[in-house]
Amino acid sequence: MTQARLSLGKQGEDLACRELRRRGYAVLARRYRTRWGEIDIVARDGDTLVFVEVKTRRSTGFGGPLAAVNFTKQRRLINMARSYLMGLPGPEPPCRFDVVGVTVTAREPPVVEVIIHAFEVR
What we know:
By secondary structure, the chain is of the alpha+beta class. It is 30% helix and 34% strand. Strands 1-2-3-4-5 form a five-stranded mixed beta sheet.
């Protein structure tokens, strides 16, 4: 991955964290590594543990950032969340998956869109 893409991804995650905190989430972890990949953000929203996927784009072409969380990516996120949960003591808390889409363009302020409970575990 190029340095420009890494920088764009970090900028998107920073903006996503800021928006989630503004909404009252407590950010517990960022870039949590598992054998299946990396969870962008693990947060708590009240009593609910939230696994957040952040997609950052420079344009809305190709369906925008939210279209990138397809079935395959959802399966990977579910496996990563299970890995995280296995490391927690006590009973499993209620959980959900949110997706944050961030669009960063040169001419306008960034747009941050939060999709709460973006998909179900099947």
